[in-house]
Design brief:
mainly alpha; extended; 72 residues
Amino acid sequence: CNDEKIYKKYTQLINLGFTNIFLYTGGLFEWLCLQDIYGEDSFPTTSKELDILKYKSPSKFSNYSLLTNGID
């Protein structure tokens, strides 16, 4: 779930005349993966994080049972 305030801030910046505004709606884990692939210049953070897996979200599939074709 994304914070809706970011869209309000985006609109405010556009109305102030800014033109190069981009929203990233992914999570920190995805951002750090992109930083690892493309570099800190393209995906900056305030500090370097070596253990990006601690920011990975839990899998949405872990709450579902696999189909077993009637076999218990």
